Amino acid sequence: MSGELPLNINIKEPRWDQSTFVGRANHFFTVTDPRNILLTNEQLENARKTIHDYRQGIVPPGLTENELWRAKYIYDSAFHPDTGEKMILIGRMSAQVPMNMTITGCMMTFYRSTPAVLFWQWVNQSFNAVVNYTNRSGDAPLTVNELGTAYVSATTGAVATALGLNALTKHVSPLIGRFVPFAAVAAANCINIPLMRQRELKVGIPVTDENGNRLGESANAAKQAITQVVVSRILMAAPGMAIPPFIMNALEKKAFLKRFPWMSAPIQVGLVGFCLVFATPLCCALFPQKSSMSVTSLEADLQAKIQETYPELRRVYFNKGL
């Protein structure tokens, strides 16, 4: 590309068309790329400076369009879209695959004893709490009390589900027992995500018009956002927790794993990782990141405020979180 980069490239939006599943999938394959967690603070700050400068109309000499988009995706991978603050490393979507493959693989390997269930469900819910807080929607902070309540409730729910199901499946086939961790994770997501984002349900999340002009806060939008995230998180976990049990059940009958039983955990982690590389971006792409809802679905007072100021407006937009 010759000459200076034009200033009309819309880097507020993803590079690919977000109205299609394929466009969203391309976007999230880039956002969840595990290589992004290896970027240094200097590289992150350089990307932030490039994006902020470009938004102010400042274009560094020699900057190409591909370099600008690369900077945008580095920026998006590490900085919160609403607050602009740098996100906790393990809470970033680029850390989802390496973190989840390790935790999930171990949950599915060490599921037979009560201490192992307690430990790995606790590790998983601690990680989920960090991810859910890091990827919340809006800019309203949670209090320490709210964080503590959410964390304890989600962890207790997950452990109770896992132990209860373990007790029920003791007299059934070992294959069915392998699905206990998935049931516990699904139940915990239904508890953890709403609790970690409870403030959004109380005070609402920012809603805007199509051009990003803030119109107010809506708890109804928060309900839709959190429901979509719960569904996508459960489906995200499904392939990595549903496919490996069949493979491991078959492998454990073979001579190799009988001779080298310590290989069970690494193989399980590898299988889960392979599934998550594809499941994470594809399930993030199920719903648009910039979600929308009809004005008539908002709270009555917010509807009245919008209709008074923007009588022609039919839909509002909001960041659903991840």
TrEMBL record:
Question: What is stated as this protein's family in its record?
Answer: Belongs to the sideroflexin family.
Give the transmembrane ranges: 175-195, 230-247, 267-287
Q: Which GO terms describe its biological process?
A: one-carbon metabolic process; serine import into mitochondrion
Q: Which domain of life is it from?
A: Eukaryota
| Presence of keyword Transport | yes
UniProt keyword Transcription, yes or no: no
Function per UniProt:
Amino acid transporter importing serine, an essential substrate of the mitochondrial branch of the one-carbon pathway, into mitochondria. Mitochondrial serine is then converted to glycine and formate, which exits to the cytosol where it is used to generate the charged folates that serve as one-carbon donors. May also transport other amino acids including alanine and cysteine.
GO cellular component assignments: mitochondrial inner membrane
Q: Which reaction does it catalyse?
A: L-cysteine(in) = L-cysteine(out); L-alanine(in) = L-alanine(out); L-serine(in) = L-serine(out)
Q: Which InterPro entries match?
A: Mtc
Sorted alphabetically, which keywords does the UniProt record give? Amino-acid transport, Membrane, Mitochondrion, One-carbon metabolism, Transmembrane, Transmembrane helix, Transport
Organism in which the protein naturally occurs: Chrysochloris asiatica (Cape golden mole)
Describe its membrane topology: Multi-pass membrane protein
Q: Mind listing the GO molecular function terms for this protein?
A: monoatomic ion transmembrane transporter activity
What protein name applies here?
Answer: Sidoreflexin
Any idea where this protein resides? Answer: Mitochondrion membrane
One protein family per Pfam: SFXNs
